[in-house]
Structures are given as structure tokens and as C-alpha cells.
Amino acid sequence: MTSGLPASIRTGLAVAVGELRRRHWLPVTIGYVVALVVVAVIYARVGGDVQARILADTSTNLDNLRHGRIATLVSSAFVIGDTDSTITNVPLAACLVALVELRFGALRAVWTFLAGHIGATLLVAVGLWVGIGMGWLPGSLGDSEDVGISYGVMALFGSLIVVVPRGRRIAWGLVWLVIAVQGVVDDRDFTSVGHLLAYLIGTGIGALMIVRGRAAAYRLGWFDLVPVVAGAALAVSFLLN
């Protein structure tokens, strides 16, 4: 069908089709969602003692980190301790991850997620270490359950500021910052602080893309509004739950 076209046009079409296939394969989104579902099914089918062991071994709490269990910084992102929330959170997270992967690419989606998940976790851990050491916080917080997708998700959501129309970015960023701060004020726990930090990390990544002049390339289309709404719903559930 394209044999009659000039070679340069045929080459351009081949490159465009290849790019379309590569982009819409979504390896990060599919791989992460499959992993979450597999872990969730296993977690739901085992007994309470095994569930407690899983949470203890994968939590990025202060005790695990102090004992050198660095692998928990990754493993914790694949465990959702509340089986009921998995049913709603995983599909919503899939929409958000897919949007970021489509717009920014697979590698940027991965490192943005990890920057939020690991960065917020370590900052919270430092705060807990100082607070417990100074006697401001109870020592029991050192071995608290700390697993889930929320820090990484909040970073991905924060990075979306780059796709917000230029005249609305400040308002968008401030509204979500106020919501995140309100969550900290209401809950007064380290998880809420982690959500705030992860959002700020993601927003910083998005702001860096804006400074580098990449905002125009990431402009949203009408179809993108669906995953944006899904991401916003998930962010609200994390920040105000």
C-alpha cells in the first residue's frame, strides 16, 4: 500500500508506527499492575500470621532500615496492606501510571515513582529517627507498618503539573499543596507527611521539566482527562483518608 510513496515518507511512517507501538505497549504500567495483582492475590489467600510476616518483612519502617534491610525500599511498593482498597486503588493507579508513561516515557515514569517512594520514605525515616531519639515521638513508631503505593503515586501525580496549562499551574499546584498540608494537620501521622513530601518531590520533577522547556511536548489531550481524574481521585483518597 505504501510502495508508491517516496522512500523518505515510507521511512517516516515506519518510524511513527514503531514509536506508536512502543509507546502504547506500556511495559511499566502492565508490569507493575500485574505484580500488584499477583501480590494482592497471594496476600489475600494466606493466613493472618503470614500476612503479618509479609508486612513486617516488607515495611520500610525505621527498624528495618536501621538493620540494613534496604530491599524494603523497593519491596514495600508492591504490597498493599488493605485488601479492600486494592480493588479500587490498583485500577486508579494503573490509569495514572499509564498517563505518565505515555506522556513522559517508561524510564521517567519509573524514576519519578521511585524518587517519590524512596525519597519520601527516607525523609520520613530521618524525621522519625530524630523525633524518637529526642523523645518527641514514641519508640513504637520505629516498627510501624509502612507499605503501599501511595508515595510513588503522589510523586507521579505531582509531576503532572508540567501538563497543566501555563496560566493554571500555580493555582493547580497550590490547591493540591493545601490539600496535602490539610491531611498532615488532620491526621498528624508520618504517612501523611510522606504523602506531602512525595507530592513535593513529584512537583519538583514536573517543575524541572517546565524549566527545560518540555511543557509544550507534554500537552494534554481530551482523552487524557480520564486518567487525570482517576489520578486526582486516588490522590484525594490518600491525602484525606
From TrEMBL:
Ranges annotated as spanning the membrane: 25-44, 109-136, 148-164, 169-185, 191-210, 222-240
Domain of life: Bacteria
Keyword Magnesium (UniProt): no
InterPro entries linked: Rhomboid-like_sf, Rhomboid_2
Membrane topology, as annotated: Multi-pass membrane protein
A GO-annotated cellular component: membrane
Keyword vocabulary terms for this entry: Membrane, Transmembrane, Transmembrane helix
Any one Pfam family match given in the protein's UniProt record, by short name: Rhomboid_2
Localisation per UniProt entry: Membrane
Chief location bin: membrane
Name the record gives this protein: Rhomboid family protein
